[in-house]
Specification:
The protein contains two helices and six strands; from the N terminus they run βαββββαβ. The protein is of the alpha+beta class. The two termini are 14 Å apart.
Length: 121
């Protein structure tokens, strides 16, 4: 089954880390990505640009309107994702629990990816 692991963290938190801690964090990410590549579980993954570069489209007065920013009601922002193909939701959660952003106040949301038939709904 495919799972999307959505990475949520506080924008700019890495700039608050020491260079040593930042290097260690990115090293952990590299190790996880290498492991998932070697096991064949990694399908895709990308970091997202700073939320300041975001626009949001909403329906306002019956017409779509484009506004600056994500305007979320939380301190965390959607920062990136991994798509993995795992044997179980427990394995996907295990991968998410190892993601270093979680230790720094972030979160990983684990969601099954629907197949084209949509029978998972």
């Amino acid at each position: 089954m495919k799972y999307m692991l959505l990475i949520w963290n506080r924008p700019g938190f890495t700039e608050e880390l020491t260079e040593q801690d930042r290097t260690a964090l990115f090293g952990e990410v590299d190790e996880i990505m290498k492991e998932l590549t070697e096991t064949g579980e990694l399908i895709d993954g990308q970091a997202l640009a700073n939320p300041a570069q975001t626009v949001t489209v909403r329906l306002v007065g019956g017409s779509p309107e484009v506004v600056d920013g994500p305007f979320m009601e939380s301190k965390e922002q959607f920062a990136g994702y991994l798509t993995v193909d795992c044997d179980s939701p427990q394995r996907a959660a295990e991968i998410a629990a190892r993601w270093p952003d979680v230790r720094f106040g972030g979160a990983m949301e684990v969601r099954p990816v629907m197949e084209q038939a949509g029978t998972e709904m």
